[in-house]
Specification:
This protein is an alpha/beta fold and about 260 residues long. It is built from ten helices and ten strands. The longest helix is centred in the middle third of the chain and has 12 residues. It is globular. Pfam families: ABC_tran, BCA_ABC_TP_C.
């Protein structure tokens, strides 16, 4: 989807995601309760909250890993509530996870190429790609987008934790995604790696919207246009990054006082 198409969708009031009354129960435990949330096409949203607030469970319901116990989920206007995860991927939804799941024995470029090939029409072809193969060219572009040119031929298992996170972002960008869910991408990163992460996220094409779950507020508030706070499986508060950062209730519950 081009920037022009995303702009027309936005002007028409189209949403990338619409959740209405979404709940998720695990036996007697209610992990999510009555989540109603709308995210515009191309919007960058942060979801914050303490451990156990329901953030990752919310991601799991959006991606289809855990179907919701109640409510409806629409993705670019289509009801995907009961779609399996792979059908949501085919429609342009992507996700990263808290724990890296990568092929350590593959090089960085081969890992990215495999992701690009996996969502292409030629994914089952046994032919070796030519030098001018379009999928190979896309992999090279993504390698550059996530700032891993110098690690092109390095085995993924030899990368630093931060570089592995960058590989994950490249994999999520494979195959022209329309919307991405980032689950704590800054966890365990050094300060310089966090700066690289912010630069990568802010440089994404304008038509690619995303939601980021993040405990590092300095990252989350810099890459989001709007923030949703969760508490005990419910939406607690929403606002701009400035409004959330200045909110006394948010400071008392999540920040332990003023956040400098």
């Amino acid at each position: 989807m081009s920037d022009a198409v995303a702009l027309s969708l936005d002007e028409a009031g189209a949403h990338a995601l619409d959740l209405v009354g979404v709940g998720r129960r695990f036996g007697a435990l209610t992990a999510l309760a009555d989540i109603t949330l709308s995210v515009r096409a191309g919007e960058r949203r942060a979801i914050l909250g303490s451990n156990g607030a329901g953030k990752t469970t919310l991601f799991n319901t959006i991606t289809g890993d855990f179907p919701p116990s109640s409510g409806r989920i629409r993705f670019f206007g289509e009801d995907v509530t009961h779609f399996p995860a792979h059908e949501r991927i085919r429609r342009g939804l992507r996700r990263t996870y808290q724990i890296s799941l990568l092929f350590d024995g593959l090089s960085v470029i081969d890992s990215i190429f495999l992701a690009c090939r996996g969502v292409s029409r030629r994914r089952f072809s046994l032919l070796r790609p030519r030098r001018d193969d379009a999928t190979r060219a896309q992999a090279e572009q993504l390698l550059h987008a996530v700032r891993l040119d110098d690690a092109r031929d390095v085995a993924v298992g030899q990368l630093s934790h931060g570089q592995k996170r960058q590989v994950e972002i490249a994999l999520a960008l494979a195959g022209a995604p329309r919307f991405i869910l980032f689950d704590e991408p800054a966890a365990g990163l050094a300060p310089t790696e966090r700066r690289d992460l912010v630069a990568i996220l802010t440089a994404l094409p304008a038509h690619i919207g995303y939601i980021i779950i993040e405990h590092d507020l300095d990252v989350a508030l810099r890459v989001a246009e709007r923030v949703t706070m969760m508490h005990n499986g419910r939406i607690f508060k929403e606002g701009t990054p400035d409004e959330i950062e200045a909110d006394a209730e948010v400071q008392a519950i999540y920040l332990g006082g003023a956040h400098g």
